[in-house]
Amino acid sequence: MFQAVEVSVPACVSCNLCDQPATFPGVADVGRIPCNVRKFKDKVFTMWRCAGCGSVHCAEDADLPLYYAAYPLKEQKLTFSERIGYGNRMRLLERQGVKRTDRILDYGCGAGLFVNFLRTKGFQNVSGYDAFVPEYSGNPRFEEPFDAVVSYDVIEHDDDTREFMRSLAGLAAGKAWNRCTSIAGPFTTAWYRP
Fold first, then answer.
1. For residue range 41-72, what is the model confidence (pLDDT) as tens digits?
2. Helix axes 80-95, 113-120, angle to 10 degrees
3. Which residue, among 149, 162, 154, has the nearest Cα to 182 in the 3D structure?
4. Does any domain span residue 45?
5. CATH number for position 80
6. DSSP β-bridge partners for residue 49
7. In the chain, alpha helices (H)
8. 25 cis-preceded (ω within 30 degrees of 0)
9. Which secondary-structure segment (H or E) carries 150?
């Protein structure tokens, strides 16, 4: 069964993505980055890039419930620029054959902006899941397969990204596809068809 949420991301000192993983310390590309949540701006994380595959990892534990409790995107509103970006995402779904009657899951949907955008465009069966947003933290009938599963800027927060992709694939019907994007690591855009 699909495990809906990992409570924290443990420290990562060995790449869990590639076949020739680099380890930290011992890599050349290392940086210190402050938390992007204003309340925790003084918390700094050590980020390192795997020399084998180029993915980015955090050397320290990350207590996601602590940071996401004050995450500003939970309060985000739909603006003109989001409408443009979500329109592009919607057209990508349609180009892949997703119909307005298909079951769609946005895993890690945050405030549900994309979910609500799709609904206003006539998509009838859109669900969102985000463990850190009360409105979307319930189980959206995971036992029934989805026709499409999308996940934007979530995969980099999971300790085992391969298992994350397998879990999302398990939520999709055999003919379905998953789309994961991330600003960190090699999966800038990854299409996966089970």
1. 888 888 888 888 777 778 887 777 777 777 76
2. 70
3. 154
4. no
5. 3.40.50.150
6. 56
7. 64-68, 80-95, 113-120, 161-171
8. yes
9. strand 146-152
